[in-house]
Amino acid sequence: MVLYVLQTIDQLLQGAFVIATIGILVVKWHPGLAGFLKYGKTLQPELGSESGTNANANALLHLMLNMRVPKFWFYHFYVLLLMLTSIGYFITDRDIKLETIDPFIKYIENRPYGTIPLEVARMSFFLLMGHATRRFLETTLMMKYSRTSKMNIFHYLAGVFFYTAMSLQLFINTDFHSIVDHSHPPTFDPLMFLSIALFLLASTDQFLNHLHMSRLVKYNIPTYGLFKYVCCAHYFDEILIYLAVFGLAKNTTSFLGFLFTFVNLAVSASETHAFYKKRMDGKAVPKWFIVPYLL
């Protein structure tokens, strides 16, 4: 029964990632829905009212497009991620006293569903805890969000879904058997070390990019590091971070989470690229918007 529930939840998360990824692409290429993707500087002024049949037909869409929350609420994502990954890090502690989680152990000790080694899962939770802490500090202390800057509420809800799903799928896919069986030594592979190195490198670069952006005059184009080649180097770092998470977990749900991240940030970067080209009249705007020499 428990195995069935875990499989079902994991499959639902996979389906949700696929639907969300396709939804982003549909919204991107449908002119009437593009407003769902915009936030901050790329967000258009609130939609005005229309008259006649079109206004009645589009009333619900207009209402949804105008449902906005403050952009500085981004910090909510990292509070949520920090909370969930801290729980995951605690539960995957090899040295935790079994009597404190006996009711839980009875259900998980012999189940075959988890494929992520316990030590690797715990490392993933630890890295994401660090990521959440850094991003929380950046969004609250470093970045200069205007109190009037907004994002669509569906963009906000997508973020809540993503950080919840990524944490939950790590937990669901962890092989907890090693909690009760210490006879199996941890097995580490080169891909794990490469993934950790990629995570740390991308995180460091993202911090430096955010520091650079925090010192810019509003709406000026960043020029530090990879910003010389792409207009959203900080998004590229985020993609690399979740590529590293997939490299650690090596499961379908992590891959779909990475794919969602790639598509979501690539689309957002294309919006930013278009904004810069329009504002700067094509001058001093990098050719690529997120991946050097590719996109």
UniProtKB/TrEMBL annotation:
It is a multi-pass membrane protein. InterPro entries: 3-oxo-5_a-steroid_4-DH_C, Dfg10/SRD5A3. It catalyses: a di-trans,poly-cis-dolichal + NADP(+) = a di-trans,poly-cis-polyprenal + NADPH + H(+). It holds the Pfam family Steroid_dh. One of its GO terms (molecular function) is polyprenal reductase activity. Residues 151-294 form the 3-oxo-5-alpha-steroid 4-dehydrogenase C-terminal domain. Its EC number is 1.3.1.94. GO terms for cellular component: endoplasmic reticulum membrane. Keywords: Endoplasmic reticulum, Membrane, NADP, Oxidoreductase, Transmembrane, Transmembrane helix. One of its GO terms (biological process) is polyprenol catabolic process. The keyword Endoplasmic reticulum applies. The chain crosses the membrane at residues 12-29, 72-92, 153-171, 191-208, 229-249, 255-276. The keyword ATP-binding does not apply. Belongs to the steroid 5-alpha reductase family. Polyprenal reductase subfamily. This is Polyprenal reductase. It comes from Cyberlindnera fabianii (Yeast).
